[in-house]
Amino acid sequence: MAEQSLMTIQRHILEEERKHPQATGELSALLSDLVLAAKIISLEVNKAGLVGIIGYTGSTNIQGEQVRKLDVFSHEVLFKAMEHGGHLCVMASEEEENIIPIPQNFVKGKYVLLFDPLDGSSNIDANVSVGTIFSILKRVTPDGGSDGTLQDCLQPGLKQVAAGYVLYGSSTILVYTTGHGVYGFTLDPALGEFLLSYNNIRIPAASKIYSINEGNYKYWHPGLKKYIKYLQEEDEKSRRPYSSRYIGSMVADIHRNLLYGGIFMYPADSRNPNGKLRLLYECNPMAFIVESAGGMASDGKKRVLELMPESLHQRTPFFVGNKEDVQMVEKFIAEEEVNVPAV
Ligand code: P6P
Prior knowledge:
This protein is an alpha+beta fold and 343 residues long. Helices cover 31% and strands 22% of the residues. The chain is built from eight helices and 15 strands. The chain has helices at 9-18, 26-51, 69-82, 150-153, 222-232, 250-260, 279-292, 323-337; strands spanning 56-60, 66-68, 88-93, 100-101, 111-119, 130-138, 162-168, 172-177, 182-188, 193-198, 209-211, 243-244, 263-266, 296-298, 318-321. The relative contact order is 0.13. The protein binds 6-O-phosphono-alpha-D-fructofuranose (P6P). 6-O-phosphono-alpha-D-fructofuranose binds at residues 119-120, 122, 213, 248-250, 266, 276.
């Protein structure tokens, strides 16, 4: 068996920690708690069709979306796995309108955890891959064991100390970065271990995949319309026409593009001026990962990681993938900007 396949995620986290002498081990312990949550969620997601866990709870989340039982289950697993570790001062989740305090009887730590417990969950009934997304920040309010605040959550993505996703697909893969490379681990259900399967992911230089919901074409910015038509023209040198690949589950779409090369887009449009995806616990972590793999992430004009959050669930237009592709769509949008009346 190749040496690499014997590398568990726990060993990898510790080896990464050893590269930073000033590390206290708290982030490593936090990441290890997340790994446990991922294993528990994976177990339920992979047997959802068997235990009748699928289907609506009858309630709706902050997004006004019908909440499926697995969303609620995943949110609760993450909260329960993370609340008592003593490494967090506050959490925030797509499933909760407000910040989630650490229960009073537990020690407060210096980190902040933001997460989307089960992104793409509307696809569960169709057995389409879904994902957990997480973002870790350091608190900015005074430490000393006090509760974290909304201010600790509303930090630009550049401040992330770690980010990752868990993709529950044909296999369960956990991908994470602390800003020093992107690493992927595949869950071996027999061992109950995540084993290193992608050592230092780099997004391929040449891409030929674009991912976007073309059903929204008529609502797009004219520059984006021109960009998509450009991708569909024939030009061998620039590998056009690109292939269109859209699963409708962001973690799955971005994971594929990270490995094969490509650009994922969820733009603003005339109906949704800020797009659909959430900045804090969807776009920032995915942007940190893709940038750490040599790619780029933009809101169509600005680097996503530099956006200053104003609210917990704020949305942002999202263009992420190969640097060349993201720069190209920014160029098409800018060129048409002069022709679009300011909103
Ligand atoms: P649409 C899933 O609901 C999600 O939040 C992302 O995972 C996905 O990329 C997007 O919405 C799909 O949205 O409007 O294309 O169905």
